[in-house]
Amino acid sequence: MYRIPVYQPDLTGKEREYVLECLESTWISSKGRFIGEFETGFAGFIATPHAACVSNGTVALHLALLALDIGPGDEVIVPTLTYIASVNAIRYVGATPVFCDSHLDTWQMDPADVERRITPRTRAVMAVHLYGGACDMPALADICRRHGLKLIEDCAEAIGTRINGRHVGTFGDVATFSFFGNKTITTGEGGMVVCGDAAVDDRIRRLRGQGLAPNREYWHDMVGYNYRMTNICAAIGLAQLERVDEILARKAALAADYRQALGSLPLGFQASLPGEASSHWMVTVLVPTAEARGAVRQALAEAGIETRPVFYPIHTMPMYCDGQPDFPVAQGIASRGINLPSWHGLGSADVRNIAGVLATCLEGIA
Ligand SMILES: *Cc1c(COP(=O)(O)O)cnc(C)c1O
């Protein structure tokens, strides 16, 4: 096992107390007070009118697409540099993912490339806020407005990320979050779908709950899903949410520590947009060459330090690689990127230790 993991959940708030309440009250399924309280609390944190919790971040994306009525024959523009779930959800509804390249500095979807990939079939753009940074939402919203496209935000990695004080997930039509165990706040497995439109929210809730018709028991008037979150998960989520600002502050401090400790090394960092406050979900560096990455990860592993490779571009995977062009920026980032240990319990001594191993190893390579 690694001495320093890339991530681990912090359950030191009221998680245990709230989960015990679920067990003692027997409200362990998808009804109970924590569901509504977690949704209301989360909507308040994001400053959005509607938030519906679901069983994970992937089904949250599925519901977002369904709620906007995106389906067969539609194209959705999505960055190739993302986690697989963003793209799979587009496939689930029978639509076609159209990949775009990343911006060289921010690593986010490049608005200029998005615009180039618009066709008469394009229905939506899915912005993915990568590693805690923010996509250029003003630019993307402008493109979508001019071309009559829906805008979906995958904010799984961006709980706490803001642009000029406005939380991501409030710029598009629908946005999704994930509470997997390595996300900024966790419910074990879980997700949230947020939107500003009451009719869209209503559709999301009905699709989440088997397409149940209003005011009539066991009568279903659309094909729905069971994508509900349990009261136990919501209990954990509420306890996490109570500490989200503290967690974010510690992550910002950790990221600043890393920048200082690694500043003199030949490493690339993710740049932020003007006005951006990152959630610093994953501290990620680019090593000088693709060839060096294996050796760097190996040296860190031998010192008990876990790392992850940056996501492989989705257009290179077997289900999606047919007839794809190159996406040189995304491919470059993906081949040189390493996620460093990023959970907020790490201290300055850990960061110095990691920096020391990196310095020795990079010296050997140069
Ligand atoms: C984690 C993640 C998801 C999926 O979330 P799950 O809760 O694991 O289903 C989707 N998109 C991105 C970008 C993610 O990082």
Structural class: alpha/beta
DSSP E strands, number: 14
Would you give the CATH topology of the largest domain? Aspartate Aminotransferase, domain 2
Mean pLDDT: 97
Please estimate the helix content.
25-40%
CATH hierarchy, class of the largest domain: Alpha Beta
- As a whole number of angstroms, the C-alpha radius of gyration is 21 Å
Q: What are the distinct ligands in this entry?
A: pyridoxal-5'-phosphate
The parts where pLDDT drops under 50 for at least 5 residues are none
Q: Main beta sheet, described? A: 7 strands, mixed
Word description of this protein:
The chain is an alpha/beta fold and 366 residues long. The chain has 2 domains: 15-241, Type I PLP-dependent aspartate aminotransferase-like (Major domain) (Aspartate Aminotransferase, domain 2, 3-Layer(aba) Sandwich); 244-365, Aspartate Aminotransferase, domain 1. Helices cover 39% and strands 14% of the residues. It has helices at residues 15-25, 33-46, 57-67, 84-92, 111-116, 137-147, 198-208, 231-241, 244-262, 290-302, 328-336, 348-365; strands at residues 50-54, 75-79, 96-100, 122-128, 150-154, 162-163, 166-167, 174-178, 191-195, 268-269, 276-277, 284-286, 308-309, 337-339. The chain has a 7-stranded mixed beta sheet with strand order 1-9-8-5-4-2-3, sandwiched between helices. Strands 10-12-14-13 form a 4-stranded antiparallel beta sheet. Strands 7-6-11 form a 3-stranded antiparallel beta sheet, with no helix packed on it. The longest helix is centred in the last third of the chain and has 19 residues, at 244-262. The protein starts with 14 loop residues before the first helix and ends with a helix. The relative contact order is 0.17. The mean pLDDT is 97. Bound molecules: pyridoxal-5'-phosphate (PLP). The site of pyridoxal-5'-phosphate (PLP) has 14 residues, from helix 3 and helix 4.
